[in-house]
Design goal:
Order of helices and strands: HEHEEEEEEEEEEEEHHEE
Strand content: 25-35%
Radius of gyration: 20 Å
Structural class: alpha+beta
Number of strands: 15
Number of domains: 2
Oligomer: single chain
Shape: globular
Strand order of the largest sheet: 6-7-8-9
Distance between the termini: 63 Å
Length: about 270
């Protein structure tokens, strides 16, 4: 029992050290360290902290072989009492239709960082994934949490679940005309097979709301090496009034030396 208490104390000490580094990092920088001190960024009434705690590797229940392992489950603890209890705000983020299954628990943490979609409105942006299926698919949740000072509690301002294998993506936009928006690309279920493009923006209630949804010009399997969201940027910008045909095309970061439209979608080659 004493050894367990010492281990918990050491874990919390390391989390506190990591949280100081997280607060010092630029708000729109790379994914934050494993623990994030939420108290300073959100000016919380209690000492809130985000600490993801991952268990040891497990025998992969999908593969069903003793020598096939997978990362352990991640308990993503948002706590105001130094880890003694965790807020239930993230419970069920990977659950579909209220039924828990093999893919309902987090085993991969892709993003954990504080972003600022509007002045004075920080969000804790998280993206995490389940175990992978036999074909490599995976259930992925993207969640943005905001803070309610009156209730001294965090609440879900945005959440969306997607798969992995069909070029799905949920992306927070950190700069440009769409700064602060969260975009998603999800495959359609009927021909012509493309993607449902959705734009969510922060509202006065500090929650995200859908402001645009349309069927993409980009087609599934068209050979375009760009991510779907990047290939749809001209359409996204045009529909939201940020771009008009004839103006320079909005292009993704990196090498896009020959931007041009093919059937309404952006290509760089």
């Amino acid at each position: 029992m004493i050894a367990g208490k010492l281990l918990m104390a050491a874990t919390l000490a390391l989390a506190a050290q990591a949280s100081q580094a997280a607060v010092a990092a630029p708000p729109e920088g790379p994914a934050a360290p494993r623990a994030i001190d939420l108290a300073k960024a959100f000016n919380t009434r209690s000492p809130w902290m985000f600490t993801p705690l991952q268990g040891p590797d497990i025998v992969d229940p999908i593969m069903g072989e003793p020598d096939a392992t997978a990362p352990g489950e991640i308990r993503m603890c948002i706590s105001k009492d130094h880890g003694r209890t965790c807020s239930p705000v993230l419970d069920g983020a990977l659950v579909v239709r209220g039924q828990r299954d093999t893919f309902s628990e987090a085993h991969y943490l892709n993003q954990a960082r504080i972003v600022y979609p509007a002045a004075g409105k920080p969000m804790l942006l998280l993206q995490f994934g389940s175990l992978r299926s036999m074909n490599g698919d995976q259930r992925i949740a993207t969640v943005a949490l905001a803070y309610d000072r009156t209730k001294d509690a965090f609440f879900v301002a945005y959440d969306r679940r997607t798969g992995h294998n069909n070029n799905q993506e949920v992306r927070y936009i950190a700069e440009g005309p769409l700064r602060g928006a969260i975009l998603s690309a999800e495959p359609t279920e009927n021909a012509p097979f493309g993607f449902w493009m959705t734009v969510n923006r922060i509202g006065p209630d500090n929650r995200y709301a859908e402001v645009l949804r349309y069927r993409s010009a980009t087609r599934y399997g068209d050979g375009n090496p760009l991510a779907v969201i990047d290939s749809e940027m001209p359409n996204l910008h045009r529909r939201l009034g940020f771009w008009r045909p004839g103006a320079p095309l909005p292009v993704p970061p990196g090498n896009c030396s020959k931007p041009h439209l093919v059937s309404g979608a952006l290509w760089c080659r």
